[in-house]
């Protein structure tokens, strides 16, 4: 460390252009930018170089110099004259590996004893040193000498020619016939105003560097239309040291220069005469723009400013030609385009984003209410000088003169015209070879504002680089390889993090990380929000044409450098704005091609987590949540767990990161940090493997630590991209949508229930199907003495391709479709649940290979013995062992985007029984075996957290466990996630089964039984996103079967409960609307054709505007929900298994089931009429309560039902029971006795209330039910509903009551009608089963109002 110098820096300035002064430059390598900061031809060794003259260790030290615009003339004068300069205010930076750090800043110095890093030697490990000079921080050590002033005065004594005088002299010499050689050697003084000056051009290795400058003479009068111009060529490194100080708008005088003939016009005419369709128009246009003679400048002393008494420059912007413009602004970000070359990033400047400023705006407060629109200046066509490249940092102020403006879009962005940019988010400009860009105020000079970022970045590329035309075409066509310095810093940190990352075990290659970052920028927009459509908005303009020509030496494979002369002079001065947008040096390309895409400016980085950490963290949290649900002492409303109990959990976004952080903190690892919850993008990586378990193929992501299945989301209506199975072992990235877990309870183990409670729950992972030595995704865990088996899998938004150049679309649904290459669903038509149930046994079917598709509602496991069945797709003699204890409920898919509670689609359901085959140990899925299961159970029971060593499972439990393990190891794993009733707030699961799985029962019901290998399940991203009320903690449970009368739309209700008020459901949702008359015709068809399927008893239908005429039957009786038997009175000394649900009740289950499994079952029937016919309506359970209404005291009736073996019932034809009458008389007597003994007076209402309170519970229940049902018509008779019903099938032994009636048979002439007897029969009553109801829709009313709306429109 060394103290900061107590005095300003003193030294000399050099301006380097070539690596060896005075010698031909060596030929460039094939990679234009392949260089390092230590290379002698590096950007840090070119441009302004400050050489310290301080005595001591710093003497001779070289620093790259960034000079602000106002001090450029001083720096250029010092570089050309060799004078000493003094740097009093500056910022010192050190760059290493393209990244810079501030070592010292004059702005922050309060005492001169502040220390900075020692700078003993140039380069080496210390990196490259750069000085950013502040405004007014550079001055000459001594003023101009008298000798120089005298020399200047002597030179100015010679006549100075204006451009008009120069043109007249040239014309006179031509008319006099003076020799050309003598004209070319005559020195002269010429003055003019700089119109434009090109950057220093050094791309041709066979020529000295040069720059093109165009001077003009302002018109002397307003009526003068012709502007005199002249072209100046500045050549040689000495003369080019003055180049940075020359800017448009300055008046200069060129002393002692010569006016020579130029060969460029002849070359243009030669190319114009060649028959090249793509170049002829360009060079024909240039022949009239290029002069035949140019002024040649080779010495720095020949360039004089007409106002050189003041070396400070004016910051006001000069005037420009009509087709160009100028601007100033604060740099917000600098973007570089990257191209991989020899495993190294080759970066060039792409564009800079600035906040436009005027001179006044800089002095005023920048927090204005109306923020100006940001601007982008595209720089591929501009050869940026080294000092400007170093100064382009965030918060610096730059000026850009003579730049092209790209017009904003008009009309539809998707079909924007050719001369307009893709969007108007930014003001867009393009810098060309006539542009001049300089730094007005360096980023290190932050006194005018607080820097929003400390990012200092400059990639090491060749200085004075003129980007090849082919590379510009690649930049214009590439939307994902441009990065800002903030993005590059974030990427750099991510690479360093992955290099020493405890969260990822694999070594990540540079190509793999580039693939990840490209995908990340593709899906995140400027505001860190996820992009729903991965394709960014782009215009449909023709792509930029790559116009490169071979070198004259004819070497094959080499493309020429751009023609700087053509680009400099190809600027239209016409009045056509369309011509202004043609790219300079091009025939037809437009400047709009530079802004063809919306570039992502987000600097949020993907969060990369190892697959095993994702699995372990989510599994650990999941087991703890399941344990909390089962503990009655830790949770008041604990769930009663039993065999077949299922639950599921979905981790995504912020919740996933919180779970991971808890896991890492327990493991003493660094937690994850993120910016905003909306910008969370989690990725994992590993090798992709395809496994085939003789069931269905699955896609596994695996490494040495674990293997886990992947399922990619599909969009609604997408059939998925079918791919073929591959044995690829390359590394792949997976963009995670969520981590899903589900489990099923196997029941208690055989050992007695433990008394100790453990806070931690042990779990054991079973072997994977990929390899027995690698733990898989299926796990066993223990809570007290209850055993569970669960599975974890990844729901992915996408699986990234191996390389960036692969097709994105071909990979987006990998894992969400059959990868075996033998997809039987590829060309099949798909039927909804409603369409399937509409069909009859004799109706025309679409095809044997049709597919039934539905949304998963719930699944259920129960104990079943393994049975031998016919193998799927094989002859009857080939049998296999199958487990049939798994059934799933599917509902119709509603595409309207309504939530489950607001759609009738959840009522249109079918139940599918799934057969899971049990293969022998010699099959390809030998990892799923009873031996492996028992080994896992031994490890679970003998763990340190369990005290039930030696416990075991029954054969039924092992069978259910193996069935789950089989089901979790295949492509249809999402079907285990529980469905709509368990995870309404997560992604829905669609299930496809073949139509051949359907059979028709004798009574017309449709039954579905499917082999596991024939179904397909996948998560779907719905097109219409609807808001759902998230359940508490995202934890969902399900135990029981869907029984008739359970309201499927009210998924999380408990029984008994009072139905919520009816709401309105829109028509549709997979439920067709019919009338009772149409249902009577279906009865006629069923009788006529002797086919019960015409009644379609499995189909749910909607009956509109129904009036309930009255309750014809109602009963509330206690029933066991496990064996569905009615509870009976206790006989003798029989003991109840558990405490009574109602105190004093003596009812018990005849099958010996626990009394806790009993509940009150409601039954009800009524006569309904819709105006076209009548029918008898039956309702059970919650549907019966829905029919009865909300003003019945349900709790009191159910409480009394526990004391009646036959239940509490009502029938209009029967009077109330004699026991009720006796109870009322007894209670009345007690009430009168109490009233008579009381001193105060009671009215009639109080007397009746007192009598009711004295009734026993069973009498109260019967009294309330009788009163409610007998007065139901008066209270609810005017209520009109829409009913959702299913038809009951006709009886098998149906007999019709036949008779004969007299009817008119024919018309006889002159006689009239002829009558006769004909046979007929009475139709059997139409019986309906109520599933749900809603308030009457207003369809008819809306139809009536249509006519009035039409009249109002006229």
Instruction: Round the mean pLDDT to the nearest integer and report it.
Output: 75
Number of helices: 27
Reported for the largest beta sheet, the result is: 10 strands, mixed
Strand content: 25-35%
What is the global morphology? elongated
Span between N and C termini?
90 Å
Computed CA radius of gyration, to the nearest angstrom: 44 Å
Number of DSSP E strands: 54
- Helical fraction equals 10-25%
Which ranges are low-confidence, i.e. pLDDT below 50, for 5 or more consecutive residues? 1-6, 21-38, 109-125, 362-369, 532-538, 547-559, 573-578, 633-638, 693-697, 721-727, 804-826, 920-925, ...
Derived from helix and strand composition plus strand pairing, the structural class reads: alpha+beta
Give the topology.
Blueprint: E1 2-3, E2 9-16, E3 47-52, E4 62-66, H1 72-81, E5 84-87, E6 90-96, E7 99-105, E8 115-116, E9 128-133, E10 138-140, H2 146-156, E11 160-161, H3 163-176, H4 180-185, E12 188-197, E13 210-217, E14 228-235, H5 237-240, E15 251-261, H6 264-273, H7 280-286, E16 293-297, E17 303-305, E18 325-341, E19 344-357, H8 359-363, E20 375-378, H9 386-391, E21 397-406, E22 427-441, H10 469-477, E23 482-484, H11 485-499, H12 510-523, H13 564-569, H14 577-580, E24 607-608, H15 611-630, E25 646-651, H16 653-666, E26 682-692, E27 697-702, E28 707-712, E29 714-715, E30 731-748, E31 763-767, E32 775-783, E33 786-799, E34 830-831, H17 833-838, E35 851-861, E36 867-870, E37 879-891, E38 909-918, H18 930-941, H19 955-968, E39 989-994, E40 998-1000, E41 1006-1011, E42 1016-1021, E43 1036-1038, E44 1072-1074, H20 1076-1089, E45 1101-1120, E46 1128-1129, E47 1147-1148, E48 1158-1169, E49 1174-1180, H21 1181-1188, H22 1194-1201, E50 1208-1210, H23 1218-1237, H24 1244-1253, H25 1257-1270, H26 1272-1276, E51 1280-1287, E52 1298-1308, E53 1312-1321, E54 1327-1335, ...
Helix pairs in contact: 6-7, 15-16, 22-25, 23-24, 23-25
């Amino acid at each position: 460390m060394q103290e900061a110098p107590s005095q300003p820096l003193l030294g000399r300035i050099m301006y380097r252009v070539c690596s060896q002064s005075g010698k031909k430059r060596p030929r460039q390598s094939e990679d234009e930018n392949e260089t390092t900061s230590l290379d002698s031809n590096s950007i840090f060794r070119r441009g302004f170089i400050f050489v310290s003259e301080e005595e001591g260790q710093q003497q001779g030290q070289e620093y790259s110099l960034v000079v602000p615009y106002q001090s450029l003339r001083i720096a250029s004068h010092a570089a050309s004259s060799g004078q000493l300069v003094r740097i009093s205010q500056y910022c010192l930076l050190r760059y290493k590996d393209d990244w810079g750090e501030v070592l010292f800043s004059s702005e922050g110095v309060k005492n001169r004893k502040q220390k900075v890093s020692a700078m003993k030697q140039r380069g080496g490990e210390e990196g490259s040193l750069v000085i950013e000079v502040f405004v007014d921080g550079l001055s000459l050590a001594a003023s101009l000498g008298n000798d120089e002033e005298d020399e200047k005065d002597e030179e100015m004594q010679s006549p100075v020619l204006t451009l008009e005088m120069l043109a007249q002299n040239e014309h006179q010499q031509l008319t006099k016939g003076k020799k050309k050689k003598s004209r070319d050697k005559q020195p002269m003084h010429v003055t003019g105003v700089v119109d434009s000056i090109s950057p220093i051009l050094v791309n041709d290795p066979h020529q000295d560097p040069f720059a093109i400058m165009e001077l003009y003479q302002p018109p002397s009068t307003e009526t003068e239309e012709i502007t005199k111009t002249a072209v100046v060529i500045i050549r040689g490194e000495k003369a080019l040291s003055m180049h940075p100080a020359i800017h448009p708008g300055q008046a200069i005088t060129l002393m002692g220069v010569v006016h020579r003939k130029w060969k460029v016009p002849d070359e243009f005419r030669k190319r114009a005469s060649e028959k090249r369709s793509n170049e002829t128009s360009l060079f024909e246009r240039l022949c009239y723009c290029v002069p035949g003679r140019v002024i040649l400048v080779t010495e720095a002393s020949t360039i004089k400013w007409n106002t050189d008494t003041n070396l400070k420059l004016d910051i006001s912007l000069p005037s420009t030609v009509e087709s160009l413009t100028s601007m100033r602004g604060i740099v917000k970000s600098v973007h570089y385009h990257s191209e991989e070359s020899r495993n190294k990033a080759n970066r060039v400047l792409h564009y800079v984003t600035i906040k436009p400023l005027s001179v006044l705006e800089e002095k005023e407060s920048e927090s204005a209410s109306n923020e100006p629109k940001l601007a982008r200046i595209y720089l591929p066509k501009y050869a940026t000088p080294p000092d400007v490249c170093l100064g382009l940092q965030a918060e610096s102020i730059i000026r850009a003169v003579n730049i092209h403006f790209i017009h904003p879009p008009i009309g539809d962005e998707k079909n924007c015209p050719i001369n307009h940019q893709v969007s108007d988010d930014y003001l867009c400009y393009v810098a060309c070879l006539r542009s001049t860009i300089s730094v007005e105020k360096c980023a290190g000079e932050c006194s005018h504002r607080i820097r929003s970022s400390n990012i200092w970045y400059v990639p090491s590329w060749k200085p004075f680089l003129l980007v090849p035309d082919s590379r510009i075409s690649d930049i214009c066509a590439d939307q994902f390889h441009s990065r800002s310095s903030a993005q590059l810093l974030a990427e750099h940190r991510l690479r360093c993090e992955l290099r020493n990352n405890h969260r990822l075990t694999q070594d990540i290659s540079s190509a793999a990380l580039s693939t990840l970052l490209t995908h990340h920028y593709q899906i995140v927009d400027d505001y860190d929000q996820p992009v729903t459509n991965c394709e960014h908005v782009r215009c449909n303009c023709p792509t930029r044409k790559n116009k490169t020509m071979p070198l004259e030496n004819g070497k094959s494979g080499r493309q020429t450098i751009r023609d700087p002369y053509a680009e400099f002079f190809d600027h239209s001065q016409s009045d056509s704005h369309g011509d202004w947008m043609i790219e300079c040096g091009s025939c037809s390309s437009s400047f709009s091609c530079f802004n063809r895409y919306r570039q992502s400016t987000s600097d949020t980085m993907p969060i990369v987590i190892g697959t095993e950490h994702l699995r372990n963290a989510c599994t650990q949290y999941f087991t703890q949540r399941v344990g909390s649900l089962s503990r009655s002492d830790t949770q008041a409303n604990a769930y009663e767990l039993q065999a077949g109990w299922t639950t599921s959990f979905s981790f995504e976004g912020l919740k996933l990161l919180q779970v991971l952080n808890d896991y890492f903190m327990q493991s003493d690892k660094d937690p994850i940090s993120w910016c905003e919850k909306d910008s969370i993008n989690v990725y994992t990586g590993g090798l992709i493997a395809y496994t085939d378990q003789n069931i269905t193929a699955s896609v596994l992501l695996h490494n040495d630590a674990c293997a886990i299945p992947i399922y990619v989301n599909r969009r609604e209506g997408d059939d998925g991209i079918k791919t073929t199975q591959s044995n690829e072992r390359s590394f792949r990235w997976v963009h995670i949508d969520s981590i899903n877990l589900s489990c099923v309870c196997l029941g208690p183990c055989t050992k007695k229930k433990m008394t100790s409670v453990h806070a931690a729950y042990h779990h054991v992972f079973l072997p994977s199907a990929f390899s027995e030595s690698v733990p898989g995704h299926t796990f066993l865990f223990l809570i007290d003495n209850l055993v569970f088996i669960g599975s974890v899998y990844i729901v992915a938004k996408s699986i990234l391709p191996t390389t960036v150049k692969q097709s994105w679309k071909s990979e987006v649904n990998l894992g969400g479709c059959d990868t075996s290459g033998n997809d039987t669903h590829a060309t099949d038509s798909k039927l909804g649940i409603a369409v399937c149930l509409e069909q009859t046994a004799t109706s025309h079917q679409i095809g044997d290979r049709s597919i039934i598709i539905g949304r998963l509602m719930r699944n259920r496991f129960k104990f079943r013995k393994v049975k031998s069945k016919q193998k799927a797709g094989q002859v009857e003699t080939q049998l296999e062992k199958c487990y049939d204890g798994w059934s799933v409920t599917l509902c119709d898919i509603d595409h309207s985007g309504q939530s489950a509670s607001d759609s009738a689609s959840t009522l249109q359901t079918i139940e599918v029984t799934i057969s899971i085959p049990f293969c022998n140990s010699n099959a390809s899925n030998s990892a799923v075996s009873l031996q492996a299961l028992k080994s896992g159970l031994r490890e679970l029971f003998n763990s340190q957290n369990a005290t039930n060593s030696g416990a075991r499972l029954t054969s039924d439990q092992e069978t259910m466990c193996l069935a789950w393990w089989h089901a979790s190891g295949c492509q249809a794993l999402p079907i285990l996630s529980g469905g709509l009733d368990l995870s309404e707030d997560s992604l829905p699961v669609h299930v496809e089964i073949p139509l051949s799985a359907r059979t028709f029962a004798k009574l017309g019901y449709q039954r579905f039984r499917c082999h596991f290998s024939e179904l397909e399940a996948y998560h779907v991203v719905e097109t219409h996103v609807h808001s759902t009320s998230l359940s508490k903690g995202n934890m969902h449970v399900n135990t029981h079967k869907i029984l008739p009368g359970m309201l499927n739309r009210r998924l999380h209700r408990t029984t008994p409960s009072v139905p919520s008020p009816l709401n309105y459901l829109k028509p549709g949702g997979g439920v067709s609307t019919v009338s009772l008359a149409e249902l009577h015709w279906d009865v006629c068809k069923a009788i006529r054709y002797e086919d019960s399927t015409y009644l379609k008893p499995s189909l749910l239908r909607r009956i509109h505007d129904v009036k309930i005429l009255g309750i014809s039957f109602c009963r509330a009786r206690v029933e066991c929900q496990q064996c569905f038997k009615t509870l009976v009175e206790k006989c003798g000394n029989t003991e109840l298994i558990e405490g009574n649900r109602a105190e004093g009740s003596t009812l018990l289950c005849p099958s010996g089931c626990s009394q806790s499994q009993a509940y009150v079952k409601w039954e009800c029937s009524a006569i309904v009429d819709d105006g076209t016919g009548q029918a008898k309506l039956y309702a059970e359970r919650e549907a019966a309560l829905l029919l009865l209404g909300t003003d019945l005291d349900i709790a009191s009736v159910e409480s009394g039902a526990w004391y009646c073996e036959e239940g509490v019932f009502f029938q209009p034809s029967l009077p109330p029971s004699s026991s009720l009458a006796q109870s009322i008389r007894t209670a009345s007597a007690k009430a009168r006795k109490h009233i008579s003994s009381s001193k105060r007076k009671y009215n009639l209402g109080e007397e009746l209330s007192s009598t009711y309170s004295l009734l026993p519970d069973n009498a109260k229940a019967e009294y309330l039910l009788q009163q409610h049902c007998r007065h139901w018509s008066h209270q609810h008779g005017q209520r009109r509903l829409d009913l959702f019903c299913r038809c009951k099938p006709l009886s098998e032994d149906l007999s019709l009551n036949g008779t004969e009636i007299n009817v008119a048979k024919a018309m006889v002439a002159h006689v009239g009608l002829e009558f006769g007897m004909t046979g007929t029969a009475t139709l059997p009553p139409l019986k309906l089963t109520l599933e749900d109801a809603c308030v009457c829709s207003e369809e008819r009313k809306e139809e009536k109002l249509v006519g009035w709306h039409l009249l109002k429109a006229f």
